[in-house]
Amino acid sequence: MVTSRLSKIAAILVIGTGAAFAQATTQQPNTQTRPPAGQPAPRTTAPAAQAPRPAAPAAAAPAATQGTLVNLNTANESELDKLPQIGPARAKDIIEARTKNGRFKNWEDFVARNVVPKNAEEAIKGKVRF
Fold first, then answer.
1. Interatomic CA distance for residues 130 and 128, integer angstroms
2. Phi and psi for 28 in degrees, rounded to 5?
3. Residue 73: CB partners within 8 Å, gap ≥ 6?
4. What domains appear along the chain, each with residue ranges and CATH number?
5. What values do phi and psi take at 71, rounded to 5?
6. Rg of the Cα trace of the chain?
7. What is the pTM of this model?
């Protein structure tokens, strides 16, 4: 007899808990009413989600890849180093050539001075200006 009563009580608790759980997980319609004047509005819903933040700007790509041309007559070593096939040593060679013999007049003048090898010339053609 005791076990049957315990079984009934357990069944009632399980059913009651399930119904309460079901009510807690269903979304209630948002029915906000204005509180009387002078009283703060009760908070009945979760705070509104914040708008997503814009992504951080991407790191700036080297000048040669952004479509801007590198001026061989004014660029410093780090700017020249960003060009394809041009490392720190070739950048120093370019700076030294323009210091010794003056500014490069045009592409033909740059090629005629043999500052960098042919493969580097081909790689930077169209990415530089004078």
1. 7
2. -90, 145
3. 98, 103, 104, 130
4. 70-129 (1.10.150)
5. -85, 115
6. 37
7. 0.49
Cα–Cα distance, 119 to 121 (Å, whole number): 5
> Tokens 């009413």 label which residue?
33
Q: Which helix (H) or strand (E) holds 25?
A: helix 2-25
**How many Å apart are CA 59 and CA 37, to the nearest integer?**
52
Buried/exposed code over 75-102 (b: 16+ C-beta within 10 A; e: otherwise): beeebbbbbeebeeebbebbbebbeeee
> What is the token pair recorded at 16?
């009651």
113: left (phi over 0), alpha (psi -120 to 50) or beta: alpha
Distance CA 125, CA 128 (A): 6
Query: Is residue 21 pLDDT above 60, yes or no?
Result: no
C-alpha 16: how far from its chain's center?
A: 50
pLDDT digit string, tens, across residues 71-116: 999 999 999 999 999 999 999 999 999 999 999 999 999 999 999 9
Dist. CA 54–CA 41, nearest whole Å: 32
Cα–Cα dist 16/4, whole Å: 18
